[in-house]
Design a protein that fits this description.
Helices cover 28% and strands 29% of the residues. By secondary structure, it is an alpha+beta fold.
Length: 493
């Protein structure tokens, strides 16, 4: 770990904490004296604060004892916990040696599973490790085999079962068997390398999910029970909350304004004047912070976007940790068909088009052979230019190790060329095409003219969803017969 440019400095623990907390991209290598847990003598722990390109800030620590030669190392994340957890599924075919060289970051909260073997590496095992797929499996096999001699003396039957399991595990580690490598991390700070970046990897599936209250508690974020309202004194708070819910959004209520203009104008004029009017009221309801699980408020209003549909805008902010979040949800029923929107970007006006990308929409740019699966960027309200910027930032954040020392020159030059081509899209050096494919028809691109028909550079087409798309969206399992029956009974009654 020692290099000529980073001379070790013997300091105390407090200095190390202050150093890694500072925003210093060239932090020195620190050494502190620490206790060896094997021989109870003093050894040396080295700390290096660094950043993996396009991934996270990390703290590397390595311990070495000169008395008993005990050595270990660990990777800890110095940055923040991500807003959502991550779930990686890597399909590893037999005989593919390159698949085992993929680099893997396993944080101290991540779990690794191999469903075919019913095998799981818990968060406390191999915590904070930077390795490869092969390295993770080999280390797990070595740790299981370490105490086999003692097991054979105490429990021969269990030792024999472990020996049989080790044969299967090593077969996976050497590429003789096909298996699935599943990495799940509630903190969102784990990672599996995609060697095909920036193109999608057909063998790697990435999903992001909201953490459960149990996972929040395991990460150390527990709701403050002192903030629970007292039942005997919450009448005034309920009345104040109701008053806030009924307050109009803006100095003049949109409902009164619409009524006043509608009395003296036709319906068409009134609708045109209030296309972008403020919502009639902002509703406020209690919720919990997605970062620290503290109670906060979420504000929501329903509005109608011209040429699109009714949407629900939700925004929340936490006074405890400062976390803010806003999202746009579609309103109304699920459309019967999906929609594919095609934009031919040729001038600056096209870059300024408003874009609503739902979390079920995929983004395709044929000129770059780029395809982002649904859910990659989440739900966005931006412009065409802003969408390209978000894609660039997301690729830098997700595809770690892109400029790492282990990357060969051909892959590094390929990534640099792709980044340059992304920048060319925003500078309009050549016309290009943006495609939004949304199975739920909840995405939107604003026209450059008053009528969609007059915009020759914007086209859209509807299509029937496949069974696989309905299955992924959960539509195949929906049973609305009870709701229809209840509605019919109310009508008859």
């Amino acid at each position: 770990m020692e290099t000529n440019s980073k001379t070790p400095q013997i300091v105390d623990v407090g200095s190390v904490v202050e150093a890694v907390s500072a925003q210093d991209s060239d932090a020195p290598l620190y050494e502190i004296e620490s206790l060896c847990m094997r021989c109870s003598q003093n050894g040396t722990t080295r700390f290096l604060f660094t950043q993996i390109p396009h991934f996270r800030k990390i703290l590397l620590s390595a311990f070495e004892c000169p008395h008993c030669n005990e050595r270990n190392n660990e990777v800890q994340f110095a940055g923040e916990i991500q807003p959502k957890g991550c779930h990686y599924i890597l399909d590893v075919p037999s005989g593919d040696k390159k698949m085992f060289n993929r680099q893997v970051v396993k944080s101290e909260t991540a779990t690794i599973r191999i469903p075919e073997l019913d095998f799981e590496i818990p968060p406390e095992a191999q915590r904070g490790s930077l390795s490869t797929v092969e390295g993770i499996l080999v280390r797990a096999a070595n740790e299981l085999e370490a105490l086999q001699e003692e097991r054979k003396k105490i429990d021969p039957r269990t030792a024999e079962a472990i020996d049989e399991f080790l044969i299967k595990l090593r077969a996976c580690a050497t590429g003789e068997s096909h298996f699935t490598f599943v990495l799940d991390d509630p903190s969102g700070n784990s990672f599996i390398e995609n060697p095909c970046a920036p193109s999608p990897d057909p063998t790697l599936t990435i999903k992001f999910y909201e953490r459960t209250p149990e996972q929040q508690a395991a990460l150390g974020y527990v709701a403050d029970t002192s903030q629970e309202p007292v039942l005997g004194n919450n009448l005034d708070e309920t009345n104040n909350l109701t008053q806030r819910q009924e307050e109009p959004h803006g100095s003049v209520g949109a409902r009164a304004g619409r009524r006043a203009i509608a009395q003296g104008n036709s319906t068409e004029i009134a609708d045109a004047l209030f296309r972008y009017s403020a919502p009639e009221e902002v509703m406020t309801f209690p919720t919990t912070c997605g970062a620290c699980a503290t109670k906060c408020e979420c504000r929501m209003f329903v509005t109608n976007i011209p040429y699109f549909q009714e949407v629900i805008v939700m925004a929340s902010s936490c006074d405890a940790c400062g976390y803010r979040n806003s999202e746009v949800k579609p309103g109304g029923p699920i459309p019967d068909k999906g929609k594919r929107i095609i934009v031919h970007v040729k001038n600056v006006r096209d870059l300024c088009r408003d874009v609503i990308k739902s979390d079920t929409a995929s983004v395709i740019i044929p000129e770059l052979e780029l395809e982002l699966a649904s859910g990659t960027l989440g739900g966005l309200v931006t412009t065409v230019e802003g969408l390209i910027s978000k894609i660039s930032e997301s690729l830098e954040r997700v595809h770690g190790f892109t400029f790492g020392d282990s990357l060969d020159d051909s892959k590094r030059s390929k990534w640099k060329e792709f980044r340059a081509n992304l920048d060319k899209l925003k500078s309009l050096e050549a016309p290009w095409t943006l495609i939004l494919d949304d199975a739920l028809s909840n995405s939107f691109v604003a026209p450059a003219t008053d009528d969609f028909k007059d915009d020759s550079q914007l086209t859209s087409e509807e299509y029937e969803r496949s069974w696989e798309q309905n299955e992924e969206l959960g539509i195949n399992d929906m049973d609305t017969s009870a709701a229809y029956q209840s509605a019919n009974e109310e009508t008859v009654g």
